[in-house]
Amino acid sequence: MILIKDNSDVSEYKSNPIIQELKDRDLANLEKEGFIIFPSTLIRSDDLDKDSQIFMSHNEKIRTENIVGFLKKGKKEVRICSRFYDAGVNKEDYFLRFLLQKVLNINVVNTNINTDSNNEFYDLLVYLFPIYFENALNKGVYKEYTTKKYNNANVKGVVNVAKHLKTNIPFQGKIAYETREFSFDNKITQLVRHTLEKLRKDYELNFLGIENIKENIRSIEQVTQTYSKYDRLDVLQENISNPVRHGYFEEYYLLQKICIKILNENKIAFGEEGQEAQGIIIDVAWLWEEYLNTLLKEEYEHPQNKNSSGGISLFVDRTHTIYPDFYKVDKTKVIDAKYKNLDQRGMKREDRYQIISYLHILKAQTAGIAYPSRMFNQNKDMGILDGYGGRLFKIPLLIPQDSKSYEEFCEIMQQSEQRFVEELDLDIFGI
Lowest mean pLDDT: which of 85-89, 157-161, 321-325, 416-420? Predict the structure, then answer.
């Protein structure tokens, strides 16, 4: 297995078969091949679009983008970690785990004693399962026609002659028959039930007060009265052979896909026939933005471009709308979330122009970029703009580097969060 990081030069590994296979291939194509890509649909992410790539080549160089995850082909594995992960210090990417826990409101404890790269991949699937589950159940419990078998006097379908002769001779008034019924107890709900039972066995899941997920679990348990742990392989195979196809149930298709990967030992196929691969791709830039929202949501608006909510008009005739990542309720401050390494470099021109435009349209006093950092001391104040005025800044949030445990990492992150929020209100960012 090779370990690489996001936003890094990986040219030294360009002969790796996985990198060769996926180089310059867009995510929309990989999603069609069965890769798990999070957020669950590409159109939900502002920072990651369908043309984005895992490995981008340019001038004989190959780089990773704002993507983390696990990839496997045959016996070859590639693990893409966040750039804040130090393999020499920690066994786990604490930063990625922290972001997932904060954004998805779930705490995952692996109760298996043996751990390896497969379990790390599996852990990511478990973190993502609840949001796929919730998105699907928001449309109600899945219902479809299923074949039911009966043996009674109320014949309503097709007589099963073979079973009738086997079980009802001598004749005692009963007839074996089959009928098609619209039922909540079907291949999809059974698949979800088997997945829930497997996760119960392998993990301790704490949904951190998300009552609607707990209620959805109860709903699945109530409708799957025919559940039996011995039917797992049959249920799994039926779902592999019969994916959800109706566009209205896209959320159930995505849930079905992740359940299959959890129950089927995470196998996803791409490339040469017979070569098994695993692929889970996470947009860490989206995670970073949504994580910042957990810190700023009390005082800041968080517009959503993909669902056209919270935007501001660019022109007075309201013919065009723009979507800053965050702006203060009183519109005095605007913040752009960037998952970029700004520790040793200045703000790029296009980023600077972007926040200047936000500042001008909102008539804000200050505008800046919030980014993850390895350092405490940064030159945060970038100066006052000429012309209409306004001040630009960049503000880091320190990511711990030498934590001895995940618990220690979380404690230091809480301190970093407090300092970050306090610095946003310092006079240096006022006019």
Answer: 157-161
Does residue 150 form part of some domain?
yes
Q: Which of 122, 157, 183 is the last residue of a domain?
A: 183
Q: Residue 163 is which amino acid?
A: K
The tokens for 25 are 């291939």
| 312-313/107-110 β-pairing | unpaired
- Residues 136 and 216: their CA atoms lie apart, in Å, by 10
Instruction: Work out the pLDDT band at 363, boundaries 50, 70, 90.
Output: very high
CA distance 269 to 272: 9
Can you read off the two tokens belonging to residue 201?
């066995």
Half-sphere exposure at residue 119, Cβ-oriented, CA atoms within 13 angstroms: 13
- CA 194 to chain CA centroid, Å, is 21
pTM of the predicted protein model: 0.82
Longest dimension (CA), the chain: 99
Cβ(216)–Cβ(116) below 8 Å:
no
Q: Total domain count for the chain? A: 3
Q: Is residue 414 part of a domain?
A: yes
Both 311 and 402 in one domain: the answer is yes
